[in-house]
Amino acid sequence: MIWLVALIVLYIITRLAFLMCLPMGDAPDELYHLTVAEFLKMYGRLPTLAEVKAGGDHFVYGTLPALGYVPNSILGFIGSYALPDTPFRLVSRFGTMLAGLPGVIAAYHAGRELFGRRISSLVLPLLVVFHPQLAFTEGYTNTDALVSSLCSINFYLVAKGYRMPTTVPIAAFMGFLTGWAVLSKTNALAVVPALMLAVYMTGKKPWQAFLAFCGMAGVLVVPYWLRNYFAQKGDVLGSRTMYENWIKILPRKEGQVVHPWPALHTIGWWRYMLFDFFGLYGLMDKYLWRPFYFIFLGGVVLALWGHIKTRYTWGALQRGPLGIYALALLLNFAATIYATYSNTTGPHGRYLFPCEIPIFALMLSGFERLGTKATMWLSCAMIGLFAMAMSMGWIWYYSMHQWFE
């Protein structure tokens, strides 16, 4: 328990550092997020398409899933009475920080389920705490923090399910978390098939657990999709409507829209994906020290080598939660590729946040297959890398900024 308390304290310290020092105009699309969150706080409902169009450029995210702003809006509503002189933009950031906290707690418990009392069980949540991009993202208003937490809880329950079969109530709870995640940000939809498979494979009563999971998720998601289908001309996810509104404010060259990301077939897309997952601050234009990115990439390669060297086959993966984790990560990455291919969005590494636990669990599992000493050295190196990159980035870009103006 003392380790969990220490992790929570570290989490609060690191997130407060960004929350208090990050300039309002220096976080990706925060003004767009704030507009939707404040609407939910004021009216307690989702905006209509007419209201989104009338709201101007800053309301462009109004057609997207919005339940990821629930913590921000609830804290904002309470703050309007308890702290009436505190600006909503600050209170909302505390909502994001609160939304990200369950992800660390889930990572701690997932580490114990996956690795017992080995060092990797503690390294897993430490990587989540010190993950530079996640720490930055959980310091301003957005929906990524809540989606990461909701999916992390589910992936912890997946790991637990291989030790204690998943009961119908637990499956229904996982369905509730999944539905909430999908209604918070569309990228959570990518990991749903992996979760469905996990619930069936670990279910004490497989079909009943599977139906409970799907039924609970469906009760939440289907009414929202039907609403969008009729209100937004068949656009159930809201992404196409958002894009149609968004391209109106994008620059054009010779009559063609210029998207602010590299093309999928270029090396720049893959490099940007790596950078933005590890840590890319500001409006995705403040890079960390470049060697940090490639040291992290080297760790990923060594972990993959560990799996390949020991011939960790798909059959072996199927016998434990790592198989589900690998499937979820592949689906999440494939969805990100498709999003760029369809011109919905670019190679944003934070879109892999639903797979925080799978990514780091697979990495640490690969390290363990290289031997005990290698695990110790590589784990310490990754923690040091993450903590140093996060701290240096904050010191370099934000430590001297006066947030209250």
Explain what you see.
This protein has 405 residues and is mostly helical. The chain has one domain. 67% of the residues lie in helices and 2% in strands. The chain is built from 18 helices and four strands. The chain has helices at residues 2-21, 30-43, 49-54, 70-82, 88-115, 120-130, 132-137, 144-161, 168-182, 192-202, 206-231, 239-246, 267-278, 290-309, 314-318, 321-341, 356-368, 372-397; strands at 252-253, 256-257, 280-281, 286-287. The strands form two sheets. The protein has a two-stranded antiparallel ribbon. Strands 3-4 form a two-stranded antiparallel sheet. A hairpin with a 2-residue loop joins strand 1 (252-253) and strand 2 (256-257). Helix 8 (144-161) runs antiparallel to helix 16 (321-341), helix 9 (168-182) packs parallel to helix 11 (206-231) and helix 10 (192-202) runs antiparallel to helix 16 (321-341). The longest helix is centred in the first third of the chain and has 28 residues, at 88-115. It is globular. The two termini are 40 Å apart. 48% of the residues are buried. The model has no long low-confidence stretch (mean pLDDT 89).
Brief write-up:
This protein is an all-alpha fold and 405 residues long.
Average pLDDT: 89
For the record, the count of structural domains works out to 1
As a percent range, the share of strand residues is under 5%
* Helix-strand string: HHHHHHHHHHHHEEHEEHHHHH
**Strand order in space, largest sheet:** 1-2
Radius of gyration from CA coordinates: 21 Å
Largest sheet data? 2 strands, antiparallel
- Tally of contiguous helical segments: 18
